[in-house]
């Protein structure tokens, strides 16, 4: 596996939120909602040698996406927001930064204060 990492999120707002926190260049891919196994394979084909991180909402759609990833990409690492926040988009920056830092991503220090 290469040193390159990819984070998969559900939507554009999630992508923007994570990109703001990260210091390092990380490819962030949006599923734009529920996807089929075929669409997922198509979306991630260019990244098959990358380390995959799945960071989706703590709701029913997010769980469906996780189940699909666990079946189709069992090596993917799953990051979880707290259920109280439900969505990546509504999770406070400090919480997101802590979750990403826990997965060894480089974070802008101002988000850890």
Based on the model shown, name its key terms.
113 residues, 36% helix, four-stranded parallel β-sheet, globular, Dna Topoisomerase Vi A Subunit, Chain: A, domain 2, alpha/beta
**Uncertain stretches:** none
Q: Mind describing the biggest β-sheet? A: 4 strands, parallel
> Number of helical segments?
4
| Rg on CA atoms, Å | 13 Å
What's the CATH architecture name?
3-Layer(aba) Sandwich
- SSE order, one letter for each helix or strand: EHEHEHEH
Q: What structural class do the secondary elements suggest?
A: alpha/beta
Q: Total number of β-strand segments?
A: 4
CATH fold-level name: Dna Topoisomerase Vi A Subunit, Chain: A, domain 2
Total domain modules: 1
Q: Provide the β-strand percentage band.
A: 15-25%
Could you explain how this protein is built, in words?
It is a single chain. With 113 residues, this protein is of the alpha/beta class. The chain has a single domain (5-111), classed as Dna Topoisomerase Vi A Subunit, Chain: A, domain 2. Helix content is 36%, strand content 17%. It has helices at residues 12-21, 37-44, 60-72, 93-102, and strands at residues 5-9, 27-30, 51-56, 77-80. It has a four-stranded parallel β-sheet with strand order 2-1-3-4, sandwiched between helices. It is globular and about 40 Å long.
How is the topology of this model organized?
Layout: E1 5-9, H1 12-21, E2 27-30, H2 37-44, E3 51-56, H3 60-72, E4 77-80, H4 93-102
InterPro entries: TOPRIM_dom (IPR006171)
Domain Toprim: 4-92
Protein name: Toprim domain protein
